[in-house]
Write a structure and sequence with these properties.
Radius of gyration: 26 Å
Number of helices: 8
Strand order of the largest sheet: 1-3-2
Bound molecules: zinc ion
Order of helices and strands: HEEEHHHHHEEEHEH
Helix content: 40-55%
Number of domains: 2
Structural class: alpha+beta
Oligomer: single chain
């Protein structure tokens, strides 16, 4: 299917503003609310799989356009969604009709790290959202690691295609298995687990 007129117009406008050649726009539908997209510089195209939410369609297209405009990374491992990218992306969102609050909500639903960048760029509301998320993370209970079986010598026992420790049942593989077999005196280990694992066994 061909892209909707608003999307073609948006591609032309953004690229004209930036003084770059526009990509070819490949547009298809997908199920669900959310859209996905990919910008392929080598192919000269942006592909969007459009979900049902019009605002998310628009944000997705602008996100890919930000990739299109972003300078090609000099270093191979330069962050794909780093501060440089988000400076461009949030500027496009604001300029092309997406309210800061919607941009933060939709963008952070895909990339949680976008909030941190948005906050350092001074996007309105980003610092508050970031503080809320951090508070929520702190409130979540941590998994408690504890000793399930205290330190003991590893006694190898064959179990199907695996070796396990006969005392604690832990699988012994790879380097640990080689070490246990090689050792003159028995290797010792501890079985650690989380509370959840402890109650399950
Ligand atoms: Zn992206
Ligand atoms: Zn053991």
């Amino acid at each position: 299917m061909s892209a909707p007129a608003w999307a073609e117009a948006l591609v032309c406008e953004v690229c004209a503003d930036a003084g770059v050649d526009p990509p070819r726009l490949d547009w298809r539908r997908r199920r669900g609310d959310h859209s996905t997209g990919v910008a392929r510089r080598s192919d000269g195209s942006i592909a969007v799989r459009a979900g049902s939410d019009p605002l998310d369609q628009r944000l997705t297209l602008l996100h890919e356009l930000a990739h299109w405009l972003a300078p090609a990374p000099r270093r191979r491992r330069a962050p794909h969604h780093g501060l440089v990218f988000y400076r461009l992306a949030f500027a496009l969102y604001v300029r092309h009709g997406i309210a800061a609050d919607d941009a933060l909500r939709l963008e952070s639903a895909r990339y949680a790290s976008s909030l941190r960048h948005a906050a350092s760029l001074g996007v309105p509301g980003a610092a508050e959202r970031l503080a809320e998320r951090r508070a929520a993370q702190r409130a979540r209970p941590r998994r408690q690691w504890r000793v399930l079986v205290p330190e003991h010598p590893v006694v190898l026992r064959r179990e199907g295609r695996w070796h396990v420790c006969a005392t604690c049942g832990q699988r012994v593989v790879a380097a640990a298995l080689a070490r246990a077999r090689r050792a003159r005196r028995p290797v010792r280990h501890v079985l650690m687990g989380t509370e959840a694992a402890a109650t399950a066994s």
